[in-house]
Amino acid sequence: MRESIRFYLGSVRHQVSGFSPTRTVLDWLREDRRRTGTKEGCNEGDCGACTVLVVRLEGDTLVWRAVNACIQFLWMLDGAQLFTVEDLRSPDGALHPVQQAMVDLHGAQCGFCTPGFVMSMVAYCKTPGASMEDEAINTALAGNLCRCTGYAPIVRAMKQALTAPADRLDTQTEAIKTRLKALVDGQTVEIAGPEGRVTLPASADALAAAYQADPQATLVAGATDVGLWVTKGLRTLPHLISVGLVPDLHKIEPTPEGLRIGAAVTYTEAKEPIAALLPDAGEVIRRIGSTQVRNAGTVCGNIGNGSPIGDGPPLLIAAGAVLKLRCGEAHRSLPLEEYFLAYGKQDRQPGEFIEAVVIPQPQPGTVFRAYKISKRFDQDISAVLGAFSLVFDDAGRIATTRIAFGGMAATPKRASATEAALQGKFWTEATLKAAQDAMKTDFAPISDMRSSAWYRQTVAVNLLTRLFVETAPEHAGTETRLAGWKEQAHV
Ligand SMILES: Cc1cc2nc3c(=O)[nH]c(=O)nc-3n(C[C@H](O)[C@H](O)[C@H](O)COP(=O)(O)OP(=O)(O)OC[C@H]3O[C@@H](n4cnc5c(N)ncnc54)[C@H](O)[C@@H]3O)c2cc1C
Ligand code: FES
Ligand code: FES
What sequence ranges are listed for the domain FAD-binding PCMH-type (predicted)? Predict the structure, then answer.
């Protein structure tokens, strides 16, 4: 058992103990290290001013990720190397190519957002296959807000930086690998601080034991929800248990049951494998939070929070996903829709945790569509999310269907009356009308700050029309997405 965390800040090794379990990386950087280049804007993962770069060793590969330091806890750095904007300039004073491009192309005015942008841009430069396309760059930078420069000069700077030769961080690749390898010791870590403690289990077995011993503890995967309980909810959490750093849970793999996504797998890591099964789901995942949020937030954390407006659960329910739960030595499987019992209440026993979620291979001929409706295109929580899976028989009838919605009830929920109206029918206008009538009985949504009940109900019914227009045989191949919508991503 180790009683401190170990990581690098720049090239300096740190071994830290005795801190509060909810101390954020941002507060540690600014208050303890005086690294004030990393800014605090929203303190809730929205603006990107606090973006830092975290590098980890996965196998023999270095993986560079931009994350929001304001909602990452300090202990989440165990085994990693952290870079802030202060690490970019060369000892001889030369700017990093990204910084130079921001100067050359007038990418900053007041400069408050600039360090965060620069760190996201450096991370993008280190993304294998990083594209010069506007859409890819907009997606990479959607988690950084600027309120004075305008995004066009920043995108131009990004393109210039992408053409630059290797930077000084790249020249340290072998040294970084050697350092990070030396930090791996396979030990569980337990840190006690003034306001509580945190356990970093070394394995799923150690996690099961720790959580059984203290079922009141708070599990933390990527902290993109839990972080806000602290920074905005001002909650004290006396015992945190890490899920996100458990190596056995950090696996995404094909199994006979389907694609198994471990509880420590982030949305960034899961996006391509899920999109390979269900392309529309990949498109929705691209719009979950921002690059920084997807780099930290996990697919299973999105289930664990029990939110009625999480984007993952309706997608996964429509895809027929199965949840893998574990309590001590006991394992069980549950169709995902049965996990959500009522608002704030899930089918999870004290000491039980999510080990993984499994997405079955879609049957041949499955048509899967998912539509996220939110006020802003990027970085916004859904007002409504509808996910539809239809399987047609050889005669062209709808043989099976699974439809799930978020934002329409107190939990993510299947539209069972709508499904019944579609079952065994040809996909015609008459069937559409019957399904729309049925949908009005499936849900009684509420009004809240995201939308009114009327809007939600109307949109849900209209999404059926959209599904029909995109998938009914007579409309085959119709694309309803508006031309140019992608270019609006940063407006
Ligand atoms: C700026 C911003 C934008 C966001 N945008 C979106 C969005 O567009 N769509 C969306 O759906 N969400 C969004 N979110 C919410 C969040 O990113 C997701 O819910 C994310 O998937 C949570 O994963 P996590 O690993 O960070 O969870 P954590 O914050 O670590 O945990 C979330 C909850 O799950 C529990 N938990 C974690 N792991 C387990 C486990 N293995 N077993 C049981 N319980 C567990 C925790 O105790 C906690 O209650 C956004 C968040 C932010 C900050
Ligand atoms: S301060 Fe805004 S994302 Fe962290
Ligand atoms: S330069 Fe002022 S907020 Fe971006």
Answer: 191-364
Q: For residues 237 and 216, what is the distance between their CA atoms, to the nearest angstrom?
A: 10
Which atom of ligand 1 is found nearest the CA of 71? 53
Tell whether ligand 1 has an atom less than 6 A from the beta carbon of residue 293.
yes
Cβ-contact 29, 38 below 8 angstroms: yes
CA of 396 from ligand 2 middle (Å) equals 50
End-to-end CA distance of the chain: 50
Res 475: pLDDT: 64
Distance 135 CA to ligand 3 centre (A): 21
* Fold assignment, 5-86+172-242: Ubiquitin-like (UB roll) (3.10.20)
CB 74, CB 195: distance < 8 Å = no
Give pLDDT tens digits for 264-312.
Answer: 999 999 999 999 999 999 999 999 999 999 999 999 999 999 999 999 9
CB 143 less than 6 A from any atom of ligand 1: no
Show the tokens assigned to 491.
């407006």
**Nearest ligand, CA 228:** 1
pLDDT at residue 365, as a whole number: 85
Identify which of 27, 47, 72, 141 to mutate to test ligand 2's pocket (most ligand atoms within 8 A of the CB): 47
Share of the chain above pLDDT 70, in %: 97
Q: Cα–Cα distance between 214 and 202 in angstroms, integer? A: 17
**CA-wise closest residue to 72 among 60, 56, 57:** 56
- Give the residue, by CA position, lying nearest to ligand 1 atom 9: 288
Mean pLDDT over 88-96 rounds to 94
Give yes or no for a contact between 355 and 324, defined as CB atoms under 8 angstroms apart.
yes
User: What is the helix (H) or strand (E) element at residue 369, kind and residue range?
Assistant: strand 366-373
CATH 3.10.20.30 location in the chain: 5-86+172-242
E-only strand ranges, 140-246: 189-193, 196-200, 218-220, 239-242
User: Which one, of 267, 272, 284, 254, lies nearest residue 359 by Cα?
Assistant: 254
Q: What are the tens digits of pLDDT across the range 352-389?
A: 999 999 999 999 889 999 999 998 888 888 999 999 99
Instruction: Tell me, using a 6 A CB cutoff, whether residue 273 lines ligand 3.
Output: no
Statement: residue 199 has pLDDT above 70: yes
43 lines ligand 2 (CB under 6 A): yes
User: What is 247-359's CATH topology?
Assistant: 3.30.465
**In angstroms, what is the span from residue 221 Cα to ligand 1's centroid?**
8
Is there an atom of ligand 3 within 6 Å of 150 CB?
A: no
Q: Alpha-carbon distance 375 to 488, whole Å? A: 13
Helices 151-162, 97-104: crossing angle, 10 deg rounding? 140
CATH number of the 91-167 domain:
1.10.150.120
Instruction: Report whether residue 320 contacts ligand 2, using a CB cutoff of 6 Å.
Output: no
